[in-house]
Amino acid sequence: MIISKKSELEVLKEGGKILREALNRGKETAKRAKKEEISTFKVNREVEKVIAKHGAEASFKNYKTDGVTPFPGSACISINNEIVHGVPRKDKLIQEGDIVKIDIGVKHKGLYTDAAISFGVGRLSEKARKIIEVTRESLQIGLRQIKPGNRLGDFGWAVENFVQSKGLFVVTDLVGHGVGRDVHEPPQVPNYGERGTGEIFKKGMVLALEPMVNEKDSGIKLASDRLTYLTRKGGLSGHFEQTIVVTEDGCKILTE
Asked: Quick one: which of 57, 98, 130, 174 is 20 to 30 A from 239 by CA?
């Protein structure tokens, strides 16, 4: 367990603001696909501009999730049945009706933040709107469980219980994690679990909490690029993430 100092939290908050600006720029760019040709590569380029403007670094760039394959982009941009780690490409065009997920990591003054959003482009199907809203709300429900004395299982149970009540499925093979001094730190934070189990939350813990919700089942598969995770049965998927710090009586979002 890593407990962050007050000075580190100030830096993480600064990095979180940069990250949020980059996410907003990415979303604005993607939504222009209703009127013009927008590739995921172009969205990634706009994200890079924001991060570079602030003298920060994109922590996903060249990061090796499997220890072997470097990620080529600064942002993971996943569409529809792509859950996470979508690779930005010039030939990957965003279409009206798509669910777009942008996931960004920022390194600022040596410390890391991580956040993701899901949103629709133009008119969405009822299924797509449901996936986005349920995923967003599941994170908010999970955040209510983050306070000293509660446990990892309390967060996971709250997220999964809500998602299942809506007839959807949490991804079980991909999880949230500690963050701050590195891109990924302990503990792992599953979006499922049993109440009263797992590591105890303590003041000063910094976590990247990220429910991933599938339409048809919890299964995943790896795409041919060896980086992008897809839904196993081809259904839609949503993803929201915030970097938070555990406080005396709850938690505070650093990437708001």
From this structure: 57
Q: What phi and psi values does residue 122 have, to the nearest 5 degrees?
A: 70, -150
Alpha carbon distances (Å) from 143 to 73, 137, 151, 152, 190: 29, 10, 12, 11, 13
Whole-Å CA distances, 99 to 29, 77, 125, 179, 240: 14, 10, 10, 26, 12
The 10s digit of each residue's pLDDT in 211-236 is 999 999 999 999 999 999 999 999 99
Instruction: Give Cβ neighbours of residue 217 (< 8 Å, ≥ 6 apart).
Output: 169, 231, 232, 233, 235
Considering the entire predicted model, what is its pTM?
A: 0.96
Cα separation, 9 vs 11, in Å, equals 5
Closest CA to 205 of 158, 254, 172: 254
Q: How far apart are CA 131 and CA 133, in angstroms?
A: 6
Could you tell me the two tokens for 24? 């907003």
The Cα angle at residue 153 between residues 204 and 138, in degrees rounded to 5: 85
Angle at 77 between CA 74 and CA 127, to 5 degrees: 160
Rounded CA-CA distance 226/26 in Å is 24
89, amino acid identity: R
Instruction: Of 222, 200, 242, give the one whose Cα is nearest residue 115.
Output: 242
**Is 34:121 a contact under the CB 8 Å cutoff?**
yes
